[in-house]
Structures are given as C-alpha cells and as structure tokens.
Amino acid sequence: MSRRRERPLVFSAMACYIACVQTTSTGSTACSTCWKHPMASEGKSIARGYKLGRCTACSLPLEGCICPLTPTIHTECQWWILIHPDESRKPTNTARLIGATMPQTRFFPWYRTAPPTALVALLQDRRFMPYLLFPQGDSCLFACLRERPWLPGRIPAFVLLDGTWSQARKIFSRSPYLRGLPRMSIQPQVPSAYTLRRQHCAAHLATVEVAIALLEQIEGPTASSLLRAYFRVFAESCMAARHGHPPQPYPPDVVQLLQQNRQHHHPAHHLSPCPTGEGEAAT
User: Fold this and answer.
1) How many CB atoms lie within 10 A of CB 4?
2) Of the ranges 27-41, 127-141, 217-231, which one carries the lowest mean pLDDT score?
3) Does residue 47 form part of some domain?
4) How high is the pLDDT of residue 51?
5) Which residue segment(s) compose the domain that 228 sits in?
6) Element (H or E) spanning 105, and its range?
7) Residues 247 and 237 sit within 8 Å (Cβ to Cβ)
8) What is the number of structural domains in the chain?
C-alpha cells in the first residue's frame, strides 16, 4: 500500500528529471524539483538524514554549505553521468561535484526498462567522441589522452556510471547502447581519498576522483587541483555532519585556491539533479 502511494512521487520527479536533461543543450542540468524529490528505487527507503535541513545545491547541512567555495572549471570535454536510481538519493554522492563545477556536465537517470533517449542520441552524434569509464577497459586509452586522439573536429565525452561497483556492472550489462563504446580504465597511483564509504578495493575510486584523474590527463594540474580541493572540502564537511560536529575551518591553501578561482570566473549554476552519496564510478 505504501509503495503505491510513493510511486506517483517517484514518477513525477523522474519525468521532471528527464525533461531537465532533454531540454538543456549546454551546461549542467538544473531543477529544484529534482532536488526536492530525488529518484528512489521502488521499495527502497529514502536516504538517512533526509529530515535534516540541507542546502538545495550542495546537499550539505545548511551550516556546512560549501557553495561559496564552488569553483568553475572550464574544459573542452563533455561529462555524461549515467546514474543509478539508488545513488541519486544519497547526499554523499560525489558526482554532484562534477556537475557543480563543470558546466559541460549532463546527468541521465538509468532504468533497465527505460533507456535514456537523450543519452542514446548523444552517443550517436558524430560531433562527439565518447569514452566509457569501466574496470574492464583499456588503460592505454587513458594514457593516450594527452595526445588528444579525438582531434580534429570532435569533442571528447566521458560516460561515467554512477553507483556502487555492482550497480555499475549491472548498468553496463543491461544497457546495450553502451557496449559499442571504447572502454577506458584508470589504474590509480594512490588509494581513494574518499572515506565516507567503505571501499572494497584500494583501486576503487569515487566518481569525482575519476573526473580528477581525467582532468589531470587532459587539462593539466591546475584544473585537477581545483576539483581535488573542492572534493576535499566536500568530504570534510560531510564527515563533520555525519558525526554531529560543527563545520571545521578548511586548510588555508585549499580555501585560497578555490577563492582565487571564483574571483576570476563567474560562478556556474550549481543546481545539479544528482545528489551525492558515494558514487563510485567504474574505472
């Protein structure tokens, strides 16, 4: 009975979410309704801490809001994030950081019986050179990114599967439109710095850490350092909120880096329909 009552809410939010993606030609998608009613799987409870007053943009408790430090990162790449419905409801999901900082980010909800038509159309668009980040991929593709193999005339687009590793495998195995894409894997040099969730393997990265590694290859250390600093601020704020601690002062070097960026760039629209829970991306 309770499931039937919830279903119209989920479908209503889903329809809004899809409309946001399909009607936004550039930049990260944004809609306050998507934030108020994030997608949830049928039969699943909503995320812990949902009653806590949170910022509608960064999804952190209001006293720990990090929006004033959100940088704008300009890159030639597109970031297409295919998000599992369970992941979208978690306030610790790191894919949100990608959407908040890079205007070329788009989110697409994944459902087994309803392929994201907007994403499928983009994958067939000859203007783009899409790459799928996946564990069983070619690490040489990642190593060759500095050579910009998509040139001339095409725009690189990175498809990130946002969810746990088991969810990422499920998304790939049940999404025929992904199978023809070049698959790229990342061999991290250091373990994940994301401690908000338990990592089953030291080589597993959070979704935003995958984006950081890609930025390092394509844009260089300046862009990757910005996103890494913002990720650090986000993780520390989440950890403080989890333990009921007041927000702690951020390291001065991190704050200075992010504030310098904001002085040189107009802030991007930071409402992004992806809530953060720990999104591991397939690497």
Assistant:
1) 7
2) 27-41
3) no
4) 61
5) 2-38+64-194+201-281
6) strand 105-109
7) yes
8) 1
Distances (CA, A) of 138 to 80, 129, 168, 181, 183: 19, 16, 17, 12, 6
Query: Amino acid identity, residue 1?
Result: M
Contact assessment for residue 80 and residue 106, using Cβ atoms and an 8 Å cutoff:
yes
Say what the pTM is.
0.75
Q: How far apart are the first and last CA of the chain?
A: 40
Question: Which of 14-18, 207-211, 212-216, 268-272 is predicted least confidently?
Answer: 14-18
In the chain, alpha helices (H) = 2-23, 32-36, 85-88, 95-101, 117-123, 139-143, 165-173, 207-218, 221-242, 252-264
Closest residue by Cα to residue 16 from 277, 276, 271? 271
pLDDT at 90: 83
46 in any annotated domain = no
93 within 8 A of 274, measured Cβ to Cβ: yes
In this predicted model, what pLDDT tens digit does every residue of 113-139 receive, in sequence order? Answer: 999 999 999 999 999 999 999 988 899
Token readout for 121 is 């159309």
- Burial per residue of 23-58, b for 16 or more beta-carbon CB atoms within 10 angstroms, e otherwise: eeeeebbbbeebbebbbbeeeeeebeeeeeebbebb
